Amino acid sequence: MNEILRVEGLSKTFQLTRKQQQIERTDRKEIVAVDNLSFTANKGEIFGLLGPNGAGKTTTLRMLATLIAPDKGDAFIDGCSIVSQPEQVRAKIGFLTSELKLEDFFTPNYLFDFFSKLYGIEPEVIEQRKAKLFERFGINKFAEVKVANLSTGMKQKASLVVSLVHDPEFVIFDEPTNGLDVLTARTVTDYLQELREQGKTIILSTHIFSLVERLCDRVGIIIDGQMTHCDTLEGICGGQSLEDRFFDIYKAKKGGME
User: Is 3-253 assigned to CATH 3.20.20.70?
Assistant: First the structure.
């Protein structure tokens, strides 16, 4: 398969405030969120980053999306550097996070048009994509409802279609089903599979074993900001369930700790 993402030694350290030190019960003044992370992803596959909360998954995706800069290392998306060519990277990717907050005052219809125009998409193309995506996610009836009055699931659907207005070939999802009801979560995961069938590349982070088993072609296990294993599910699990294998890896990484 053709390599579309190459991550080379990404590292990111955050300074801790006094309040954060108290919460973490530590005297450390900084925390290493991502530590010399390297991996690749191929065109047309779903690559999962699996790890517990605080493992560095979200920080990694934010660096790939050029929302924050790495302290060290680089990553190349379709040949473009996240460090030296962030604008070119942003034009190639779609990024969805459960933390994405759409402005309450606006409607899905307005937001779709607004973000489409930011990408310089022609009006007729905007209408075609909007019709297709709104129909696919059942947004038509809510197109003129303000975001503040939408359900959590409908807000997530609106966020998803807004992130895909420019029909990107490379899509980044951070915890795509987090906080969703089972019906909305299934709609989202079904669509991820459709995107893969269209030849698009998807990078997603999750802590849900069943989601990885259902969707991912390959998976990287990340613990304490480091990639411990990166392979197909079969290559990592070797006949075990993913959950059992993950906890074996986690205990070995933590030196026998639970």
Answer: no
